[in-house]
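User: Please predict the structure of the protein below. I'd like the answer in structure-token form so I can feed it into my own downstream comparison script.

Assistant: Understood. Taking the following sequence of 99 residues as input:
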Amino acid sequence: MKIAIPSKSKTKESEIYTRSGRAPYFLIFQNGEFIKALENPYAQGEQRGVGPRVAKLLLEEGVEKVIAQEIGPNMKLFLEDNGVKVEITDRVKVLKVIE
């Protein structure tokens, strides 16, 4: 399963970024293995409405599940409507989520 986690930096040792749509990066894992850090082009700039755009970006990457501390309602709805599972976690470190 391909999983995306919003992250503060490009490394799997990073902390999870709390505001998913504004995360600087999404770390992509497949079957527990780190694949890549995807830069979020919507991390800064527009005031509103970035959640569905970020969700579309993740869909284009083939993501099947997003694990986050928080996720906006529009982003969550877009992901779930497109078959992507959303899981909320209280963990702080990316690696703790993937364990």
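That's the full token string. The chain has one domain: 2-98.
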